[in-house]
Amino acid sequence: MNDFRDLVDKLRIIEEGGTVDSSPTNEACSYSNPAMEGHTYTCKDCGCEMHNCDPGCDCPHDSHDEQGDWWVDENGNGVPDFMESKITEDHEYINTVFEKMKSMCEVMEKSVTPDSSFISRINETGGDSSWLDDVRSRVNALYASIDDARTGALGDLSEGKYKVGYKKKYKK
Asked: How far is 48 from 119, CA to CA, in rounded Å?
């Protein structure tokens, strides 16, 4: 609607004998990734907003290059704002899966502890439960490994180590 009003204003000026600047303006373009709409990214060197560069700015960065490493998001945490809710969702899902794996390890570990009913029955039947010592140590190692993997996976997501890709498309 603003574009229409601007056009009407320019036509009125021309009808009254005035002139209007028809050179391209540096008005804000829409983002090629719609999820970025509503967020502000500024150049870390000059402070211009993405797709809305100050006309007098002499910064060498392209204000329309959405993948440039010079953009700083609103809260400055390095994770594009449009990805933060997705990352939170991913964190919750990943954390849930790792917790389920750890729970399975806990069940296995309880069944091979020296005071478990499983070990007692092996011993009561004259079996040798020492064979399960190796199983117990491997289950404990697996539990630790799962915990390390969870920390690494969630750490990578929170540090923004994910790929964001989309085609460049500019408003003409």
From this structure: 69
